[in-house]
Design goal:
Elements (H helix, E strand, L loop, with lengths): L1 H24 L7 H16 L6 H25 L7 H19 L5
Subcellular location: Cell membrane
Keywords: Cell membrane, Membrane, Transmembrane, Transmembrane helix
Pfam families: UPF0060
């Protein structure tokens, strides 16, 4: 379930940040900011749902979530912006996912 929360949080964060990018850099209507703010609030809510014993662990896992965020960003790049990631993008994302998995899946002692 944690991985699904991180994927959903990544998509919410990317969509929220993209709305600001679209407004500022692509000169879209300021109305793009409203759903962006909702997405960013959803991002924070989803991250708070991660089952962990301490907020610090959630945000240490948030660092691990960075690997998922990177992969999701490349998916956004390809699917939304129609720019295909190159082999270096994919290799870097794979390394990040491996690193994120070490943090997320490590056995934690008492």
């Amino acid at each position: 379930m944690t991985h699904l929360l991180y994927v959903a949080a990544a998509l919410a964060e990317i969509a929220g940040c993209f709305s600001f990018w679209a407004w500022w850099r692509l000169e879209k209507s300021p109305l793009w900011l409203a759903p962006g703010l909702v997405c960013l609030a959803l991002f924070g809510f989803l991250l708070a749902l991660v089952d962990t014993s301490a907020a610090g662990r959630a945000y240490a896992a948030y660092a691990a979530y960075g690997g998922i965020y990177i992969a999701a960003s490349l998916g956004w790049l390809w699917l939304v912006e129609a720019v295909r990631p190159d082999r270096w993008d994919l290799a870097g994302a794979a390394l990040c996912i491996i690193g994120a998995s070490v943090i997320l899946l490590a056995p934690r002692g008492a």
